[in-house]
Amino acid sequence: MILILYTTRYRQGSPMFKRAAETLAGEKAAVYKGPVLCRGIVHKKEVSDLFRQLAEEGKYIHEYHFVGHSGMYGPMYGTVEYPEQFSPHEWQQMHIPFAADARAYFHCCRSARWFAAFFARTFSVETFGYYWYTGFSRRTDYFGRVRSESDPVYAIGCKGRKSHGIIGSLKKYTRSEPLEKMRSFSPSEFTEDRSYDKVAALYDAVFQDIKVRRDEWNWLCRHLPDLQDKTVLDIGCGNGALLKELAPTVQQGIGVDVSAGILEKAAQMHAQNTNICFHRLQGPVLPLADQSVDIAVSLLSFRYLDWDPLMAELKRVLKPGGRILIVDMITVPVKKREIPVFLRHKLQMYIQKYRARNFQRSLSELVNHPDWKHMIKYNPIRAEHEMKWYLESRFPGRRTEKINIGWNASILAFDSGPIEHMNTIHLTYP
């Protein structure tokens, strides 16, 4: 069978997604001898339930098409008010009844940057996606504006204003550049090590003193409560530099990370701190007892994590009144109204470069190393709306804030506030 799914409520464009899916279904039905199922979905649970139903009925998918929006880690479901996304861990636990010669197509923004390769490797199917942003066209060779209800509609990938500025927009509307061809990924791709193991020594040299991340450290100091008699969990702890600063004031500090190499550096840094311990994460499961943590901190690591499975674990291990603090990098171009703040932050950065020259040299060595660039390729940074909408929906009434603004990337910070009842963390599960 051919399965075509499209989102119906996430962001704008849902009516066009429906038309694009129906156009695709009509063209497939004209040449394919088997059944073609075209269905609109809202929640990610609908997707996992459908795959489970097809498997139970003994039906196999020869082509799977998804038409909709995508974040850096794959398709988005739900709504802007409550965005949903399968984490890598959730995909890996899922069974999709693919036929032996199956293919998967993701007609959505940036699906070829990370997700298509991951999906191909996870499900052993050739997978296709777009590298650039997507739009709607009545043609598949060059952009053609959809003008009437009778026009066919295609979800197409193309360079445009969002990715290439005014020049890209002119090329799109003047048809001086063809539309993007979907990029193909074989199951053999995405076998690379995604951890920090290969750059552990370089990373450790950079972050001996976490206070070099001045804006992030200052924000944490303002939002951390009195730590006396408290247990602090550092998620994605790296070499333990944050816990090094907190060690004199906390009753217990616990660091967790997926990288064995970086945890070795953390253990060396804390050889004399008996109140600090480290654990390696094996999947999104925290090796901690129920209601054993007062404060959970994620500093520059949240973008890599399996969000909903991790939040379920935090819901389990946090004590009533516990708190979650998140500081991370996001991709977002500077806005016009932010330019004065951007210039101030830029000046502060140059001053810091002058004052912390050893740190800057070590940082430059790290970020220019081939192993770092390779690792970042398979650990993409999230877009602003992905992280902002996720956190604000899971903790109603709490807001994210930008604490440093760059030209194409910023630092986002979030304080959950005291969580008196764990059921105030709003979650859904596939």
| The CATH homology group name of the largest domain | Vaccinia Virus protein VP39
Spatial order of the strands in the main sheet? 15-14-13-16-17-19-18
Secondary structure: helix percent: 25-40%
Shape: globular
What class would the helix/strand composition place it in?
A: alpha/beta
| Topology-level CATH name of the largest domain | Rossmann fold
> What's the architecture of the largest domain in CATH terms?
3-Layer(aba) Sandwich
Overall tally of domains: 2
Radius of gyration: 23 Å
**Low-pLDDT residue intervals, each spanning 5 or more residues:** none
How many distinct beta strands? 19
| Most strands sheet | 7 strands, mixed
Distance between the termini: 23 Å
Strand content: 15-25%
Number of helices: 14
The first-level CATH class of the largest domain is given as Alpha Beta
The mean pLDDT is 92
Walk me through the structure:
The chain is an alpha/beta fold and 430 residues long. The chain has two domains: 184 residues, no CATH class; 228 residues, Rossmann fold (3-Layer(aba) Sandwich), CATH 3.40.50.150. It contains 14 helices and 19 strands. The strands form five sheets. It has a seven-stranded mixed beta sheet, sandwiched between helices. Strands 2-1-3-8-9-12 form a six-stranded mixed beta sheet, sandwiched between helices. Helix 9 links the parallel strand 14 and strand 15. It starts with a strand and ends in a 15-residue tail after the last strand.
